[in-house]
Amino acid sequence: MNLLTPDTLQRFLARFCTFYDAVLRSCSAFVSKQGELSCDICIEAQDDESPSGWSNVTLRLHGLKIVHLDRRVSGIEVLSFGLQVYFLQDTVRVDLDPDPIHEKMLGLQDSLAYVIGTSLQWKAEVYHTLNDTPPSSS
Questions:
Q1: How far is CA 84 from CA 46, 73, 76, 99, 103, in A?
Q2: Is the pTM of this model over 0.90?
Q3: Per-residue pLDDT for the chain (138 aa), expressed as one digit of tens each?
Q4: Helix, strand or coil, per DSSP, at residue 18
Q5: Residue 69: beta bridge partners?
Q6: Which of 74, 100, 85 has its CA nearest to residue 41?
Q7: Contact criterion met (CB below 8 Å) for 129 and 54
Q8: SS3 content of the chain, % helix, strand, coil (to 5)
Q9: Which of 107, 61, 113 is nearest to 83 (CA)?
């Protein structure tokens, strides 16, 4: 997995079109063998580096502090307004489908879906087109 840092954030968001109109597939928390609480967020997103234009992207937050997914107002399955990532002191915050009117980080009470941890890694599994042929075994 790739470590996301403030220095790599803009390139990451650009590659995945800031996750506009991406689809949230799953969000799961787990405890590692070392006792660290983590969270995987799996998103189907546009990908500038995928042959088909789409990939499954997994965001893994380590040192999980908060997972908040509020579906009372509306569904959060489609990230119409993408996602935003903020690095604050010793934490990283991922806002899923943030309010499009605000250009800065919302207060926690205003966000419908967010996850906070101490570090963030990611990986992309690209979709291949039907015309792709597997490598020959010579």
A1: 16, 20, 14, 10, 10
A2: no
A3: 999 999 999 999 999 999 999 999 999 999 988 889 999 999 999 999 999 999 999 999 999 999 988 766 556 688 988 999 999 999 999 998 776 665 555 565 567 788 999 999 999 999 876 555 444 444
A4: helix
A5: 113
A6: 85
A7: no
A8: 10, 45, 45
A9: 113
